[in-house]
Amino acid sequence: MPLTGLQVFKLLPNTNCRECGYPTCLAFAMKLAAGKESLEKCPYASPEACAALGAASAPPIRGVTIGRGPRAITVGEETVFFRHEKTFVRRPGLFRVLNPASDRDTLLDSWRALRIDRAGETFQVDGVAIPESPGSPDDAAAAAERGFPVALLAATPQGASAMAERIKDHRPLLVPPPGADLGAYAGLAARLGVPLVVSGADLNALATAAMDATRAGVADILLEPPGADLCGLHHNLSGIRRCALDRIHPGLGHPVFLRIAAGEFEKAVLGITKFASLLAIEDHGGETWLPLWTLRQNIYTDPQKPLQMQPGVYSIGEPDAKSPLLVTTNFSLTYFIVSTELEATGLACHLAVVDAEGLSVLTAWSAGKFSGDRVAKSLRAMQATERVSHRTAIIPGYVSVISGELEDALGDGWRVLVGPQEASDIAPFLRDVWETVFR
Ligand code: SF4
Fold first, then answer.
1. 375: containing domain
2. 175 C-beta neighbours (distance < 10 Å), count
3. How far is the CA of 37 from the centre of ligand 1 (A)?
4. What's the CA-to-centroid distance between 29 and ligand 1, angstroms?
5. Residues 246-295: pLDDT tens digits?
6. Do residues 49 and 87 share a domain?
7. Number of folded domains that form the chain
8. Which residues line ligand 1 at a C-beta cut-off of 6 Å?
9. CATH code at 86?
10. Which of 10, 245, 364, 403 could bond 356 through an S-S bridge, CB–CB 3.0 to 4.6 Å?
11. What is the spatial distance between Cα 111 and Cα 107, in angstroms, rounded to a whole number?
């Protein structure tokens, strides 16, 4: 269980030496207990204190890594039931099930090449699930060689062994059939040092299976929850998370694995919204994926951090040195609204997105992050000033107050034009003001 501030304080040296950056050991202890500081900042903490605090601060759901290399995925390590309590830590991995009858190499290559950038996140296939078949060891090897984390959907201990032995160095996830006798699979996972999925007819049986696997030497476990229908599955997914967070049973302190058969879209949605850590999804086409990725992105973003765009100069169309240069903040929503309106004008433009820590225009200005001086520095740093010959920057109407300061800070003959307050007025503004006055 987490320690209170006073309990943490009793483990510290109580010398108030300030080397941690806090005036007293008690102040530091309060931050440690709240999870906002690291014990490493106290050079005098005893090994006993480190051990006690380390155990107390271990997440209630164990982290498990599947795969190796840049695409390896870690799941688990969650600490809250509701996202508004703190934040969700690990977004669920969405694995595609490889149909054994498919054109394997073409399909895997297309999955590997697939990348969709949306609001600061890249959507891609997180991993591949390989059902047991006569050719499944080769399928597993083909997926692992392309860098994908792999889940092995075994039907028999012999099939599991053939697949797992083939790619054991790629740290695959071993998934026995639901309800299978665990013994042979647990022995294989322990011997190869790979993570294992366990299942059970109810939560008690599931927790017992996880404890049995631990005793058999399996270090990393995922739980496949029971659930005859969506209602039962919902109940069990919530029960596992609640029992894990309250540390009611150590057998339930593991990430959750879910199989999604073709057409079970509602089950995938339930899994993403209700704590599943890894979903192996069968589908007949790409249309399933964009809504699931988008749903996941909406849930697994930190509500305390606004979605941000990478600061820089974005081209709308094919702008040249005579094209207008508009300036806005890097709040994703602002960027998408403004860029959409600009695209609708059909006029090529430069859109300079200034780092305002993800705040909208007016909020950023109020917080001192969109001042004339700061915007000028950003425009120079991103070389926006070198992209146009007319030396004119258009700022949002809501921050007309910074126009003079920005002109002074830019200097060198630059002028600042105050644009409209609302993005919907950009088109008439460019048509009536820019096209007539500056062209
Ligand atoms: S560095 Fe350690 S001993 Fe010094 S004040 Fe901070 S917590 Fe106390």
1. 312-438
2. 28
3. 12
4. 9
5. 888 889 999 999 999 988 999 999 999 999 999 999 976 677 889 999 99
6. no
7. 3
8. 12-13, 15-20, 22, 25, 28, 42, 44
9. 3.20.20.20
10. 364
11. 6
